[in-house]
Every structure is written in C-alpha cells, then in structure tokens.
Automatic annotation (TrEMBL):
Function: Rnase which modulates cell survival under stress conditions. Released from the vacuole to the cytoplasm during stress to promote tRNA and rRNA cleavage and to activate separately a downstream pathway that promotes cell death. Involved in cell size, vacuolar morphology and growth at high temperatures and high salt concentration.
RNase T2-like C-terminal domain ranges (all copies): 293-407
Residue segments, region Disordered: 270-291
EC numbers, comma separated: 4.6.1.19
Signal sequence extent: 1-18
Family note: Belongs to the RNase T2 family.
Protein's UniProt name: Ribonuclease T2-like
Keywords: Cytoplasm, Disulfide bond, Endonuclease, Glycoprotein, Hydrolase, Lyase, Nuclease, Signal, Vacuole
UniProt enzyme class: lyase
Gene3D superfamilies registered for this protein in UniProt: Ribonuclease T2-like
Amino acid sequence: MPSVRSLSSFALSTFGLGQSVLAGTSSNRLSQLSTRASATCNNPQLSCHNTTVQTNLCCFNAPGGSLLQTQFWDTSPPTGPSNSWTVHGLWPDNCDGTYEANCDDTRAYTNISAILKAASPDTLSYMQTYWKDYQGNDETFWEHEWAKHGTCISTLDPDCYTNYQPTEEVPDFFERTVSLFKSLPTYDWLSAAGITPSSTATYTSAQIQSALSKNLGGHSVYLGCSSGALNELWVFYNVRGSVQTGTFEVTDSLTKSTCPATGIKYLPKGTSSTPTTTKTSTSSPTSTSVPGTPFSGKGYLNVVTSGTQKGCLISAGTWYTSGTCATFTATASGSTFSLSSSKGTCGIVSGKFTCGSGVTAAQFTASGKALVYQGSGFSADSTASGSTQVTVYTGTGHSVGVEIDWQAV
C-alpha cells in the first residue's frame, strides 16, 4: 500500500470538527518536506482545528489529526503490574471517529524489539513491563500496533527526516506513546477518587469520568467495558506540530463509550468473577462483549481496505458502499462471541461471511477493533462500489484484503 503522504486527493473537513488538508502530488511535497518536522515546525497549527489549508504534513498530522493514547486493564489473564493499567497503543483518528489503517506495507516491520534495543533500550525495557499482550505475544502485539496505526501518522513519514535511515521513525512512535502513557496515571487517578479494583463493588460511568476528567482539563475519555467490567480507556489529543516534538493537547472523546451508566465492575487483576454487591446500584446491567475486545452490544461492521474505511457490511453479510450500514449484535460466549443481524445469525458458509435465519452461528474473536475468524482476517474478489454488493471471505486467499472493524452504536 502507498504511504499516507503519497495520496493525491484533497482531505477536507469543517473547521471545529476536522481539518482542512491539501495533499498535493508526491513530487510537490518532497521538495517541501526534505527536513525533519521538528526542525521546521514554526508556529504550527493545532490538528483538527486549523484555520488555513496545511501543506506541510511533517508539521501537521493529517488526515489522522486526533491522536488516541489507548490503555488496557486486563484481568483474566492479567497483564502488567497489579496497580497499573497497560499500554494499548497510539492511534490516529480522522477528527470524526473514522480512521485509516495499515497505510504502508513496506514499513510493516517485524523486528520492533531489535530496533528499540539498538535505538531506545530504556523504552523497550519499560514496554516489557507496561505494554503487554494478554496472550504473551508482546513482539507480535507491538508489530501490529506499529503497522496498523504508526504507519498512518503523517509526521512520522520517512520524508520528514533528514538523511532518513530505515526504521528511524519507529523509536519516535514508541517513545511518544510511552511518554504519553507515563503522563496518564489512570490507576492513581481512579484510586484518589475512591475507585479501586474490587470483586464486589461497582461504580457509575459518571464517577469514573469525573475522576479522570478532573485530571484532563475537564475533557471526557472513552470507557470500554467487557461483560460489564471496565477494561479499556482512550484519551484523545490534538497535536500542535509533529508527533516527535509537538505539543499534545487533550480533547473530548470522539467515540461513544461502551460501558453502562451504572453497575460498572472494576475487577482486580487475576479476577473474572461477577460481583455480588454494589456501591451505587442493586443490579448490574449485562454487557454482551468479550474481555479485551470492543465487540459489545450493537454496532456496525465497517470495512477497511488499502488503509481507508470504505463502506460496511449490510444485514446479509455482504460488503456495500451505498445506503445504510446494518446494525449487528455481538453476544459473548466465553472467550469468543457470535454476531447477528436483522437477517439472523452470522456464520461462515462455504468460506463466505453470511447472515441469515438458517445460518449456523460462528464464533469470532478480535484483534483490537478488527474481526477475526479462526485466527485470520478477511478478503474479497473485488472492491465494493456504487450499488454493487461484494461477498467477503475468510482468510487472505482473495485479491482484495479487507479488515472488518467494529463501531459501537
């Protein structure tokens, strides 16, 4: 896939909601971006709030102008110290809740540990404690976060470096992510407000938001829950300048939280039991999500191809780019979940993602927001466009690779 900086179209959105970005041809930009962003960012504008068209994408993050520092609270199996949340990643968002992904396959490095050991050993050491995969595959997790999200941050593009050396941008991504995480002591902030891990107590969404927002200039965060238990949060930033050297300014969440209003569990690490008493409610709403995933309750299944969201799945399970996205329901079943639409249960029929009344329900898992079936993603024979519906297959054996991402509604 091409780098985000080689796109030749305009990326335009309304001031106050997004950002106006002029992306000219690669040759035009190469002459402007021959030095590292940190050396040339004079009076940079704040991403998602620019008042004029921006052409230097080494000093202005676009189209992913909202940067999310995402964190996990994994309890079963537990990850990281018992008194700390752990790092999930640093994600660029298009200032409106949509995002690009896997923007440059040529930079999908598979040796993150080796790169950091040579260039930033202290960062690697910290990650080995605080940036953990719940299945124990830390290296694979780091590779995934870099390839899916890091390659879509415009100010980390190789063109932004003087005398660029391959992988030079990787330490910048991980160092910035770690530094942001260190500035967000979520466990301590919650504890100071009397919100501590418990097998019996529950809390309200308002209590949790208040405890966090008072330390974030009053801004809201995204709260993610699995089976009614708090397990993820995202802090949103706009950036004045580059990711490497710019100023990160907290802003409100662009994504609707998946936690219930009351009865939220905050379990100790190593615990997966259901609480029997509550602090603020005598009953606990039931969530239909799976621990460690955002698949909860009702949502859309958006399709991402070549790093760009394009359409979604409709009720029969086909990929469509015109009309209304179908609303799917995710229902937990142990460590997996099933999906259904208005047509019926969703499953895999002759390798095809299909939903209908006679379909046997498949058990899915997730990698971040992405849907996974038996350890693999999805593909199609062509790209959906106009009124043409396209069948989506499991695995990567078809010509168009697609990622199916969950969007809670």
